[in-house]
Design brief:
The structure is a single chain. With 772 residues, the chain is α/β, with parallel strands linked by helices. Helix content is 43%, strand content 12%. It has 34 helices and 20 strands. The strands form five sheets. The chain has a six-stranded parallel sheet with strand order 10-7-11-12-14-13, sandwiched between helices. The longest helix has 25 residues. The protein binds thiamine diphosphate and magnesium ion. Magnesium ion binds next to loops.
Length: 772
């Protein structure tokens, strides 16, 4: 980590002021100066920004090295933009358009902001935890020989104190302790205010205990240099005691009220401090009492320098929300905006001329300028935006595993095993991970081959004792499976971090995560977060649906296909056959490595299904595009069965029975409602631009007349497929699962939930009746 030996503290203080001004001004400009014609409040968080400007100045202009990566508290986004504005990597235009279309984003966005954003943030807690998994990925890459020591960095999270209520943070540090993660700095902006109120008192004690017990060093940064000096004066000890016992609400209210209120209160509570008070006027007293370490760049740089090793460290930096602004400390200041009068007086107090508000170093005197410019120059190189890295690994064709009868889940395990045995660049770059369902999602054979990843090798005690087991999992720093505890949020954060390896470390990984389909819901926000950042991975959800039979309703998923239908950046495939699955996995790997690609979600099943005999490869293209005719419809077909996934045998049996009376009945195999829907809406949008091309869904369904009916069937919410009727206006009889599942044999459950041949036959008959 490249770090300058000394930093000009005065220059840092100036930069702190500049950041406070520029972040406040950016928000002010968006709300009070830019014209608005829709009447919507633009918003922004001046108080949350002011709380962190010193922290961020000390970090970005002193402590950060070129390989370090930062997740910034979402509502401090304007401070990050201001930093890059000062460094010359953000434009005035983008700041003037803050929160506008195409302008600087409200919350730092990797994909939409032009400045280098290491991790997007917005949903509090997730930006914090992803840094831990990024550090784990860094260790993984190093252990595999893909990342040199000099390319390693530290992962920093800038955290709001109320953000620490998010449980996913604690799931992450527990997992981190198991993996001995290092190189983390989590810096808490401890302003003791949340969105709604001042936060609970003395929580730092709890945080301290929790983090320390997970192996973290906790650095509490409470008093700034002025306060520390005052503590040495007569009455100083009493002052310190008073501060330490003051409630958060009390301290915040006095901060808001200012010097006179501090004086009255302190005299009443601690007469011993009379001398300290007498030697200061109200302004000086206020400055003293609000001189918390989180606003003191000297205290901060010292603390950062002290912790320049790889021990994971949590800094609890005491701050004041809205520091230096008129609503400092007011409990309602979270979304508070300064009015134009307040803004003008802040401008004057900072020596900024009207009309020069955007000038980067406006108000900085000639003497100070040289130091500030030198500091900016020194920090520039560390913060350059670098191109994303793709295209590093060729994806070979993936053959379908042999077998007349197989489940897609078994085929998945087999494909990975074959890939492992064949070896090659792709197999070496695959990293698998699972929240304690490695065996039950069929990753066991792969792990037997490739081993568990552990920075410090752990022997397989059972194997050493010669106890028979199908799972021989040696762990070492060459292993390719990262074991996680049962915390689905961690799974998605791990996939997000590994799926950004190309961006963060310029080394592409092919991450595969497995879990049970219903438990996607447990990690949904983290999944969305991974997709929002354009992380690339393959998510394999298995088993799924009521086809799980005896496992019962708590494990039978219903709505994940609908989740996938509404999730940008994630492609849902649901194969019925092993050869479809092999094609989809090849496609998923290709998409991971393609700049215009995305992540893939495979919804698999444990049901053994007789495999289809193929005459040729013509199904393949359709299967990858979302569907294909497994039984071609006749020219005058009045109906078709439209089926997805594991209920294929029921559909085929019904098709065979019905075809005797209904020659020309078609059977459409759907492999991705998600892709079909996207293609359909995209084709419509293209038509508005004068482009005429049918979507894949339209092309498939136009083989039937408009009067024909569709019986759709899936082991999932029926809405996954019923929308297909809207494509050409064909009627639909939707079959699927609408109530919670339960235990039972497949025959029992398919009959009870109307996923069997009888239900299909009835639905087809109903459609024909309506036609007649
Ligand atoms: C998951 C999630 N829930 C709620 C919010 C809305 N929200 C944004 S900031 C905030 C309070 C944050 O307080 P704190 O973390 O202490 O930050 P401060 O502004 O005080 O620095 C809330 C509730 C969010 N962004 N994400
Ligand atoms: Mg706070």
């Amino acid at each position: 980590m490249l770090k300058p030996a000394t930093t000009d503290v005065d220059a840092l203080r100036t930069l702190d002021d500049r950041l406070r001004w520029l972040s406040a001004w950016t928000i002010h400009h968006a709300n009070h100066i830019r014209t608005s014609d829709d009447g919507l409040k633009v918003g922004g968080h001046q108080a949350s920004c002011a709380s962190m400007t010193a922290l961020m100045a000390a970090l970005y202009f002193h402590a950060l090295g070129p390989n370090d990566r930062v997740a910034v508290k979402p509502h401090a986004g304007p401070v990050l933009h201001a930093i890059h504005y000062l460094l010359g990597s953000q434009s005035r235009e983008a700041l003037e358009n803050f929160r506008g279309f195409g302008g600087a984003q409200s919350y730092p966005s990797r994909t939409k902001d032009r400045i280098p954003v290491d991790f997007s943030t917005g949903s509090v807690g997730l930006g914090v935890a992803i840094t831990l998994f990024a550090s784990l990925v860094q260790d993984y890459l190093t252990a595999h020989g893909w990342l040199d020591e000099q390319d390693r960095g530290r992962f920093v999270a800038l955290i709001g104190d109320a953000e620490l209520d998010e449980g996913n943070i604690y799931e992450a540090i527990i997992e981190g302790a198991k993996h001995d993660v290092r190189n983390l700095w989590w810096i808490v902006d401890y302003n003791r205010q949340s969105l709604d109120a001042t936060s609970a008192d003395r929580m730092f004690v709890r945080f301290d205990e929790i983090f320390a017990s997970c192996g973290w060093r906790v650095e509490t940064l409470k008093h700034g240099k002025l306060l520390e000096a005052a503590f040495t004066e007569e009455g100083g000890d009493a002052l310190r005691r008073w501060i330490d016992q003051a409630s958060n609400a009390d301290y915040a209210a006095l901060t808001y009220l200012g010097g006179k209120a501090w004086r009255e209160r302190l005299i009443a509570d601690v007469p011993e401090v009379a001398g300290i008070l007498e030697r200061r006027d109200d302004g000086e007293l206020h400055r003293l009492m609000t001189n918390l370490a989180g606003h003191d760049v000297e205290s901060l740089t010292e603390a950062f320098d002290r912790c320049d090793d790889d021990i994971p460290t949590m800094f609890i930096a005491y701050t004041i929300k809205g520091f230096g602004l008129p609503f400092a400390g007011h409990k309602d200041n979270h979304a508070g905006l300064m009015n134009p009068r307040q803004m003008a007086s802040l401008r004057e107090s900072m020596g900024i001329r009207e009309g020069h508000e955007w000038e980067p170093l406006e108000g900085v005197g000639d003497n100070a300028r040289t130091g500030v410019e030198a500091l900016l120059d020194r920090s520039r190189i560390a913060r350059e935006k670098r191109a994303r890295s793709f295209g590093s690994v060729a994806v070979p064709a993936i053959p379908a595993p042999p077998g007349d009868e197989q489940s897609t889940q078994a085929a998945f395990g087999r494909i990975l095993l074959d890939l492992s045995k064949a070896g090659g660049a792709l197999a070496d770059r695959i990293v698998t991970t699972s929240p304690d369902v490695t065996v039950s999602t069929n990753l066991g054979a792969w792990v037997n081959q490739r081993g568990l990843f552990r920075r410090n090798a752990v022997p397989d005690v059972f194997a050493q004792a010669k106890i028979a087991s199908a799972q021989k999992w040696g762990s070492n720093n060459n292993g390719q499976h990262v074991e996680l505890g049962i915390a689905e949020s961690n799974l998605f954060l791990m996939l997000a971090a590994a799926g950004l390896a190309g961006d963060l470390f310029f080394r592409r990984l092919f991450p595969i995560g497995t879990l049970y389909d219903p438990f996607i819901a447990r990690g949904l926000d983290a999944l969305n977060y991974a997709c929002y950042q354009d992380a690339r991975f393959l998510l394999v959800a298995t088993p799924s649906g009521i086809t799980l039979g005896p496992e019962g309703g708590a494990h039978q998923s219903i709505n994940p296909p609908l989740i996938a239908l509404g999730q940008p950046g994630l492609r849902h495939y649901e194969p019925a056959y092993a050869d479809e699955l092999a094609a989809m996995m090849g496609e998923a790997f290709r998409l991971i490595d393609d700049p215009a690609g995305e992540s893939t979600y495979l919804r698999l099943s444990t049901r053994n299904i007789r495999q289809v005999e193929r005459r040729d490869d013509s199904w393949r293209e359709g299967a990858l595009a979302g569907g294909y005719w497994l039984r071609e419809p006749g020219a005058d077909a009045e109906a078709a069965i439209v089926v997805m996934g594991a209920v294929m045998p029921e559909a085929l049996t019904a098709w065979e029975e019905l075809s005797e009376d209904l020659p020309g009945l078609g059977l459409l195999a759907i492999t991705s409602p998600d892709l079909l829907h996207r293609g359909w809406t995209a084709a419509q949008a293209a038509r508005w631009n004068g482009e005429r091309r049918p979507s894949h869904a339209e092309a498939l369904l136009s083989r039937l007349s408009r009067q024909a009916g569709l019986v759709t069937i899936a082991d999932a919410a029926p809405a996954s497929l019923s929308w297909l009727g809207g494509v050409l206006g064909q009627r639909v009889a939707p079959l699927g699962v609408e109530k919670f599942g339960q235990t039972g044999s497949l025959a029992d459950l398919y009959a009870a939930y109307r996923l069997d041949g009888a239900a299909i036959t009835e639905a087809v008959a109903e459609i024909l009746l309506q036609n007649g």
